[in-house]
Design a protein that fits this description.
The structure holds two protein chains of two kinds.
Chain A lengths: L1 H17 L3 H24 L6 H31 L1 H6 L5 H31 L8 H28 L3 H16 L12 H6 L2 H14 L3 H33 L6
Chain B lengths: L3 E16 L5 E16 L3 E5 L6 H8 L7 E6 L2 E2 L4 H7 E5 L11 H11 L4 H14 L15 H13 L5 E5 L7 H16 L3 E6 L2 H7 L2 E6 L2 E6 L1 H5 L5 E9 L3 H8 L4 E9 L2 E9 L5 H7 L4 E8 L3 H9 L9 E5 L2
Helix pairs in contact in B: 3-4, 4-5
The chains are: A mainly alpha, B alpha/beta.
Amino acid sequence: MSTLRLIAVGVLMHVKMSTRGNFEIATAMIVPIVQATMAVYLLRAADSPHRMIEAAVGAGMMGVWSTVLFGSGGAIQRLRWMGTLEMLIIAPRNPAVTVLPITIATGLTGTYTMIATLGWGWAIYGIRPEFAHPWLFALALPACILGLGMFGLLMASTFVVMRNANALCNTLEYPIWLLSGMLVPITVLPGWTGPLADILPTTWGARGVHEAVSGGAVLPAVAWCLGISLVCFVLGAVSMSFVERRARAAATLALS
Amino acid sequence: MTDYAIEADGLRRTYRSRTGWLRPQIKEVDAVRGVTFTVGKGELFGLLGPNGAGKTTTIKMLNTLLIPTAGRARIFGHDVVAETREVRRRIGYVFGGDRGLYDRLSGLDNLRYFAELYGLPPREQKARIGELLELVGLTGRENERVEGYSRGMRQRLHIARGLLHRPQVLFLDEPSIGVDPVAARDLRQTVADLAATGTTVLLTTHYMAEADELCDRIAVIAGGELRALGTPAELKHFADGRRVVEVEAYGVGDDVVARIDAIPGVRGVTLETVGAAQLLTVQSESDVDVQGEVLAVLDGVRLGRVSSRQPTLEDAYVAIVSGKPQDADPQREKVAA
């Protein structure tokens, strides 16, 4: 119970932190418009106007992924700058429980990105948010965001040990978009990418959301997403303990 | 059950940094080189030393933020490496400066979050936070964002945060740095009150007067080594048998300081900037009058007041830290194999 309270309060505090900066607010306003515009022109060029809503949802998921990736990496980097990373680590808690609220908070702010992308797509380009399975969409989207959050936790362990975590964020952003089939179907990618895509929770989360929009089997994809998310959580929790010790040995918790 | 709150036994910490890819250079810096001391339960213990002496590194090894390269440390008998969780339950950590708080959150939100992190029962949180806000004089300002706080207010919030879970040992790392004199005095009073209630306090500072006023015992650290350990009265004896010449000057360079240091009978020279002037302090053996030779070396330099006086506690500190370390070079560079 105490752990759940800590996670809930931690999520609330980190959502407050990440929504009170001018840079973050400006980014949250602009990025969804860029994502929606990119998706629309991509599919117009491909002469597939009937798939506009799928494109808008895919663009929204790209935004959620960027938010989680840069949010988690950026948040830990910001904690290091503020000197609060040491204060979190020194608390008598499992390090995974102290870092998990950060990734969940970035997932929640990422949800806004999805909603804003769909909103801008509708307002500017007239793409009506009509889904084949609206209720399953409401189920698949949180599952997808949870999957991204757990994957974020797994990566957060790397951010704790690396002082220049932003470099890793830049490297991972585009490959995961592509491999997960957020915007472009993974069937158009080379065959060797298939196994890589299959082990990413983002692939199954994105598939669940796409199926909810276009009318396919949503639940199996959601189940896979949640299953792989659980594995990511366990691996993330174990690696956080390992990485916390390594960061204490390498003296990377502080800036200097 | 141990009689000590803190035990440090041969603590050593080496930092390694690597630069370059083709021919990587690995630089090793021995920040702390075999420090041993104990702190009794309820004692207010000072760790005093100049910037870069190894105070913060020592405190971070004791509070589990750094793993020692060698040596052992225990808090209430619990090893800081093997029993990290047990140690963390018993300690609080407060450091000086602007960092260490969530700037975009209110003071109250900061305390609420850390109360959860330290597992304070929800029923107790409100009362405990209110009590601490009262203690540090932030009642009425708790709903304002920390980014709008003055440095003194941040420092007081830091202390409130460090005390939330009623730690048995409180580590205070230069808590009065950058704080105005009135706020620093209040802070010293808070620390003294804490020690009076039985909390063991380890305070690092480079202000001799602060350590003298507060601490039961002081360890002086310089160059990563413990140079002296004792009560303030015992440490004052380090300046026995010395006399001090102070010269107010303008434009003294390092070469001049080196020439004065080389005068026979001189035991230590410090140069500090005081407003537009420089204050040159020369310690010498009590039976040697070096004033004439010092003024001869300063020939051509614009001078102000020149005085000779008996040594103070601060001179004792200077005498201790300016003593020669055992190993001259704490930094090493090598090319990686």
